[in-house]
Amino acid sequence: MGGSIVGIYYFTENKISYNFKIFRLPFLLSMILVSYTLLNGFFYSFYKSILLILVLWIIGGLILLYKKNDKMNSLINKLVECCKSW
Question: Are 12 and 27 in contact (CB under 8 A)?
């Protein structure tokens, strides 16, 4: 299942626009969680995993919304530039 997940991930990564690349990690983690659940059924920390992935999707959505705002876009770009060379 891991090879299929990575193949789907790379396929979709090349097809989506640059703005939606913020969702790469939540998408990959969602696919891993779905495949693991299909293979093993529900597990003890399933709900914690769902909560973590949901939070990542929400954070990505908020960043995408704020990025469309000009003032917030410059702030986010400064934040990314600051932390990029860390």
Answer: yes
